[in-house]
Design goal:
- The chain has two domains: about 180 residues, no CATH class; about 100 residues, no CATH class.
- Helix content is about 25%, strand content about 25%.
- The strands form five sheets. Strands 1, 2, 5, 6, 7, 11, 14 and 17 form an eight-stranded mixed beta sheet that branches. A three-stranded mixed beta sheet has the order 8-10-9, with no helix packed on it.
- The C terminus is likely disordered.
Length: about 350
């Protein structure tokens, strides 16, 4: 069997990505609440660690890929006219200006589309986005910024297996390459430099193309401490609504909101289905040819994240994210395996 035949039989591939926050990132919960901060960000319900939902990432990437493709090919042909990829195929669907739902439209094929039953129904799309999780979190210290991680964050990225890194030998220590102690504000930790798994962890993080200045200042703490360190070092800003008539602050319109700080390293995965296994309204998918084609279509719009950002408060200097060089799929039985 030729390599081409083998590729056509694989059901999907999972690709891992890492990104560096160039600005604070605020993905809110959708409302205000009583507490230290009025507008909080999304957190994992079990660990209480902030994250960016996969739906938020999929939404902006759909818009950005539509923008990108519109500059290359001005829309798909329907009844002899060009229907624009952006904003039509980037929107919610429905109506004359909604998704085209064509098998040769890469936006609708990769991200799916919504159409009524009379129009042939919808399609779930070829790309599935995981949540974006914190891999390395920046914290101020007496030695300057330090980037902290934990066994749980390393396991969920595939950097370490559970059997290799169930937890740390000592719960109240930081494991680093050098130093005697680490002062993280309210938390003072001793440092251990002879922890053997650390060299392997650093080498695997380098494969994600995380900058060396971050890796050289990296420390590993226990899962228990990591959640407290992250939530104690989120950026909190105060804003006030402006009265358009006077140009001054509006009375009783002060509010606060939190964000993941600049320098946070996030990781996520995109599972790309094989387009050869799907049809749209009985037509074969011709927009992309393979799982790698799905990935490449998405990667082509990553530059938009660096300039237009993700999440809210974009007009207040938030949201920009630089996607680091993607990690190639592994041949082993772990995230990134090619599955037939």
């Amino acid at each position: 069997m030729s390599m081409t035949d083998v590729e056509k039989k694989k059901s999907f591939k999972t690709f891992g990505f890492a990104g560096l926050a160039l600005d604070p990132i605020h993905v809110g919960t959708g409302g205000t609440r009583l507490g230290r901060v009025d507008n909080t960000i999304v957190r994992d319900p079990v660990t209480r660690i902030p994250k960016i939902p996969g739906s938020s990432l999929a939404g902006v990437m759909r818009a950005y890929t539509a923008m990108k493709h519109e500059t290359i090919n001005p829309g798909c042909r329907i009844n002899g006219k060009n229907k624009p990829y952006f904003p039509d195929c980037a929107g919610q669907g429905g109506g004359a200006s909604g998704h085209c739902g064509r098998a040769d439209c890469p936006v609708c094929a990769v991200f799916g589309f919504a159409k009524g039953k009379d129009d042939g129904g919808g399609f779930a799309g070829l790309a599935a986005f995981s949540d974006m999780h914190v891999l390395l979190f920046p914290v101020a210290s007496q030695l300057g910024p330090q980037w902290i991680t934990c066994p749980m964050a390393l396991r969920q990225t595939g950097i370490a297996e559970f059997s290799e890194l169930a937890d740390l030998p000592e719960q109240n220590m930081a494991y680093r390459k050098e130093g005697n102690s680490l002062n993280l504000g309210w938390l003072f930790l001793g440092v251990k430099t002879d922890w053997q798994p650390l060299d392997g962890i650093i080498q695997k993080i380098k494969e994600w193309h995380v900058p060396d200045y971050i890796i050289s200042r990296m420390g590993v703490v226990s899962d228990k401490l990591f959640a407290h360190i992250v939530n104690s070092n989120l950026e909190v800003r105060t804003s006030v609504a402006i009265d358009p008539a006077t140009g001054a602050a509006e009375d009783k319109a002060l509010f606060t909101y939190e964000a993941m700080p600049r320098g946070t390293v996030l990781e996520w995965q995109v599972t790309c289905r094989n387009p050869n296994h799907f049809m749209i309204n009985k037509y074969p998918l011709t927009a992309v040819e393979s799982s790698e084609g799905v990935k490449n279509f998405i990667v082509g719009a990553h530059c938009y994240l660096e300039h237009l950002g993700i999440g809210g408060m974009g007009s207040r200097g938030m949201g920009r994210l630089r996607v680091l060089k993607p990690k190639e799929p592994s041949a082993d039985d772990k995230p990134g395996k090619e599955v037939s």
